[in-house]
Write a sequence for this structure.
């Protein structure tokens, strides 16, 4: 479809198709089918806006900016296309775009730095908290080891004096160097029986066992805490 009719540019048009149509009628402009160089046809086209490098048309299917370079020669002449003015305008738009792109890149960089700092701050807090956990466990371990050492001095050397013997076929008896003594009925003479008797007739030894276990538990907790700290430090590199 070819149209050579040139149509006037309305003086004031709003970017709304309904209002625009009324303005176009008021200004005496008629709707046209505009054929672009690409062959695309814009039915019922009205001018919404004009720039040095092209025009914005409202047409049956919506709105579209059309560069003068995409228009046939007759439309370029009808709309007063000036290649020099268009090039200057394009250059100005490109400069403005560069400024906006630079500002956006700087904004994104600031945001990334902020997030990185927040992430580092969070990691630093976790590392600091874990270091405090380790310090606390180390102090607890030192104190537990001191208690164990003191108990071993008074108890450990005497535990070997405990005498255990079978009494008949159903009893096991334990004699303690601290004056404790006891027996238990049992058909077997095994570790379970021994431990039960020690708790009954050797309370100091039982305390020693618990203190030794406390030291072991603290050592295991400290090792686990140190592994966690090592992982945190590794993730910050």
């Amino acid at each position: 479809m070819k149209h050579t009719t040139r149509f006037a540019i309305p003086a004031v048009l709003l970017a709304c198709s309904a209002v625009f149509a009324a303005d176009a009628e008021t200004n005496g402009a008629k709707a046209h089918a505009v054929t672009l160089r690409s062959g695309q046809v814009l039915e019922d086209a009205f001018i919404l806006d004009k720039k040095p490098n092209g025009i914005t048309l409202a047409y049956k299917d919506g709105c579209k900016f059309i560069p003068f370079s995409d228009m046939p020669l007759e439309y370029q002449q009808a709309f007063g296309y000036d290649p020099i003015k268009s090039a200057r305008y394009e250059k100005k738009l490109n400069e403005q775009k560069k400024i906006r792109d630079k500002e956006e890149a700087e904004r994104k960089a600031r945001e990334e730095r902020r997030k990185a700092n927040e992430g580092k701050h969070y990691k630093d807090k976790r590392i600091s908290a874990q270091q405090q956990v380790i310090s606390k466990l180390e102090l607890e371990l030192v104190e537990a080891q001191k208690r164990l050492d003191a108990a071993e001095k008074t108890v450990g050397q005497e535990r070997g004096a405990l005498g255990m013997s079978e009494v008949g076929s159903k009893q096991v008896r334990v004699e303690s160097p601290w004056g404790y003594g006891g027996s238990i009925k049992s058909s077997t003479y095994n570790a379970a029986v021994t431990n039960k008797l020690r708790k009954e007739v050797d309370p100091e030894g039982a305390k020693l066992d618990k203190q030794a276990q406390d030291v072991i538990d603290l050592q295991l907790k400290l090792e686990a805490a140190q592994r966690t700290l090592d992982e945190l430090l590794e993730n910050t590199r």
Observations:
- The chain has two domains: 17-81, 135-235.
- The radius of gyration is 47 Å.
